[in-house]
Amino acid sequence: MDLQLIFNVPNIIDYLRIILLFFGITQPDNIFSVSYIISSSLDFFDGHAARAFNQCSVLGGCLDMIIDRISTVIIGLRMLKKNIEYYRFVSFYILIDLLSHFVHFTVSCMTMSHHKNNTNVIMQIYYNKFVLFPICLLSEAFFISAIVLEKKHRVVNLLQIVCWLKTFFHIVQLLSAIMTMSDIKMKLN
């Protein structure tokens, strides 16, 4: 067991994200939203800290991806608590998000490649920081807006379009990962 790795700077940031999520789920909408926004914002810093301190690790990559997926489920559930009419959309969004990321992450582990290294042109566009950051930010804004604003607010409807775009990229990611996985020749027994 490597305690220095377990408690390195980027992993501590991820543990803080988990604590904020635990805290937020028991709070009213406004405090939940602030807690969630801080947790999501810290996602931006864990990767930068890992590279800055030369602390990139498999554990850190796993924590980051899993916390991102858990965050998606938590924000989706919180939104449904207030706006059940989004049930189909949120269910589809979470299903594609979880499926695409877990299959893609599995392929990345099997091929020992970084999850953002992708030969698919569409995924290269998505992982460009000038595309990925605004899409992620606006997707998070959709969920927060749906929680704190009135039902069917125009802003919520506009931001939902970005979530559909993100889902499109996740479908491409899933298909790309499935195609890559089908080319891997190895025995599992």
UniProtKB/TrEMBL annotation:
Signal peptide: none annotated. This is CDP-diacylglycerol--inositol 3-phosphatidyltransferase. The keyword Metal-binding does not apply. The lineage of its organism: Eukaryota, Fungi, Fungi incertae sedis, Microsporidia, Nosematidae. One of its GO terms (biological process) is phosphatidylinositol biosynthetic process. Belongs to the CDP-alcohol phosphatidyltransferase class-I family. Keywords: Lipid metabolism, Membrane, Phospholipid metabolism, Transferase, Transmembrane, Transmembrane helix. It is a multi-pass membrane protein. InterPro entries: CDP-OH_P_trans (IPR000462), CDP-OH_PTrfase_TM_dom (IPR043130), CDP_ALCOHOL_P_TRANSF_CS (IPR048254). GO terms for cellular component: Golgi apparatus; membrane. Pfam families: CDP-OH_P_transf. It is found in: Membrane. GO terms for molecular function: CDP-diacylglycerol-inositol 3-phosphatidyltransferase activity. The chain crosses the membrane at residues 86-105, 125-149, 161-181.
